[in-house]
C-alpha cells in the first residue's frame, strides 16, 4: 500500500498546487468485502469531482466527472474505471492501471482548470 500512498500523495500535490480554493483528501478505507484495508483519494470542486478507491486486494474504482455549472448539458464523465484482478500478480497490474488513470486525470485536469 506504500506504493499507492506515494502515487496518491503525488496526485494530491499536483491537484492542490493547481487548485485555487479546494484541497484533495487521502484517507484510509476500513475493512470490507473488497479488501482488508485500502486508501481513497477524493477531490471535489465546482468543476471537477475525483474519487479513487484502491484496496489491498488490488481492486480499483475510479470516477472523475467534469461539471459545467453554467450549462449542465456540457457536464461529462471523464473517467469511470473499475478493475477487479483475477491473478495473483494483481498488485503489480493494479498499480500500473492506477498510474495510467492518474495520467488521464492530470491531463484532463489541466484542460479544465
Give a brief rundown of this model.
The protein has two helices and five strands, in the order αβββββα.
Task: Write up this protein.
- This protein is an alpha+beta fold and 113 residues long.
- Helices cover 35% and strands 31% of the residues.
- It contains 2 helices and 5 strands, in the order αβββββα.
- Strands 1-2-3-4-5 form a 5-stranded antiparallel sheet, covered by helices on one side.
- α1 runs parallel beside α2 (90-112).
Task: Count up the helices.
Answer: 2
Which structural category fits the helices and strands?
A: alpha+beta
Helix content: 25-40%
Compute the CA-based radius of gyration: 14 Å
Kindly state the mean pLDDT as a whole number?
87
Beta-strand fraction estimate: 25-35%
Explain the layout of strands and helices.
Blueprint lengths: L1 H17 L6 E5 L8 E7 L3 E8 L4 E7 L9 E8 L6 H23 L1
Antiparallel strand pairs: 1-2, 2-3, 3-4, 4-5
Keywords:
about 110 residues; alpha+beta; five-stranded antiparallel beta sheet; about 35% helix
Amino acid at each position: 500500500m506504500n506504493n499507492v500512498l506515494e502515487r496518491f500523495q503525488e496526485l494530491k500535490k499536483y491537484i492542490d498546487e493547481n487548485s485555487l480554493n479546494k484541497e484533495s483528501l487521502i484517507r484510509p478505507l476500513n475493512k470490507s468485502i473488497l479488501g482488508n484495508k485500502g486508501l481513497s483519494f477524493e477531490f471535489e470542486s465546482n468543476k471537477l469531482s475525483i474519487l479513487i478507491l484502491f484496496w489491498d486486494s488490488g481492486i480499483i474504482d475510479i470516477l472523475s466527472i467534469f461539471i459545467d455549472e453554467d450549462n449542465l448539458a456540457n457536464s461529462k464523465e471523464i473517467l469511470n474505471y473499475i478493475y477487479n484482478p483475477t491473478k495473483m500478480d494483481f498488485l503489480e497490474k493494479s498499480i500500473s492501471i492506477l498510474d495510467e488513470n492518474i495520467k488521464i486525470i492530470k491531463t484532463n485536469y489541466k484542460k479544465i482548470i
